[in-house]
Design brief:
By secondary structure, the protein is mainly alpha-helical. It has two domains: 83 residues, no CATH class; 135 residues. The protein has eight helices and no strands. The relative contact order is 0.12. About 5% of the residues have low confidence.
């Protein structure tokens, strides 16, 4: 079994474990999704109430008849469909990650990654969920780091440079070519392998911060840079 095949198998195993435990999404992700759903429900309710009030007032002026009722129902349905089609969560622009404060970067990177879910294959979505859980753990640990510390720079490079370059490099490839071998590499497998490396690296960073040994954060930097450079070349 090749290394890429092993990564795919590991990703599928992670999916099964998370499904069994019900912990594939971070608490923050669940809260954002629930809040977005509640906003849509409220918007739909007030849109329907507005149409009902407008129809009632119009009826006082002149009978609206069956045609008027049908128009009102059509407007209600259109409003509900339009609200349902609206983006549920706020968007984070890729370029905004580089300008985000270190303490807010894990949350912004998590939201950015969530925004990319629909354009990623299933094993990659599993890793997105796993990364989100780890980012939730990492966020409070960054409060004691200064922006200019080497450890902070490594974390910023991982979340604002390497992660977006990996995902956007994959997305730049036409969909039919993502599962085909190019120059000895399969883009989809490279994406999954890269996300696996990032997932493991965030876990390592969190453990290192917890132990207080900040110098260890730079140990694997060269290996990771080579990994991400390969991913960046996906779209070239």
């Amino acid at each position: 079994m090749s290394r890429s095949d092993r990564v795919l198998a590991d990703a599928e195993a992670v999916l099964r474990r998370h499904s069994e435990r019900g912990q594939s999404l971070s608490a923050r992700a669940r809260q954002r999704r629930n809040a977005a759903l509640m906003r849509k429900v409220k918007y739909a309710f007030w849109a329907i109430m507005a149409v009902l009030v407008a129809s009632t007032l119009a009826g006082f002026i002149a009978p609206i008849g069956t045609t008027g009722v049908m128009i009102a129902l059509g407007v209600m349905l259109a409003a509900v469909l339009l609200i349902g089609a609206m983006p549920g969560e706020r968007r984070v622009r890729t370029e905004a990650l580089a300008d985000t404060a270190l303490t807010a970067l894990p949350l912004q990177a998590e939201i950015w990654l969530e925004n990319q879910r629909k354009a990623l294959p299933a094993p990659a979505v599993t890793l997105v969920d796993s990364i989100g859980v780890k980012l939730e753990t990492l966020a409070p640990q960054l409060e004691r780091l200064g922006e200019q510390e080497p450890a902070a720079q490594e974390i910023r490079k991982l979340l604002s440079d390497h992660l977006p370059e990996l995902v956007t490099g994959y997305q730049s490839i036409p969909e039919p070519l993502r599962r085909e071998e190019r120059n000895g590499r399969v883009p989809e497998k490279q994406l999954i392998e890269g996300l696996s490396v990032i997932d493991a690296e965030i876990a390592r960073m969190s453990e290192t911060l917890a132990s207080g040994d900040l110098d260890k954060l730079a140990v694997q930097n060269r290996f990771l840079e080579l990994k991400y450079q390969e991913a960046k070349e996906l779209g070239q």
